[in-house]
Amino acid sequence: MPLLPSKSRLAHIVFEHDDKASKNFDLVILVLILGSLV
Could you list the pLDDT tens digit for every one of the 38 residues in the chain? Predict the structure, then answer.
């Protein structure tokens, strides 16, 4: 699964630049995107 490491790295980059409120929102978006890919 080569996609997972890059997605986690991207998530880390996004989360580092967001505050906690936005982090939770982006996490929901990320889960929805991953869910639609499966």
Answer: 455 556 777 777 666 655 665 667 878 888 888 888 87
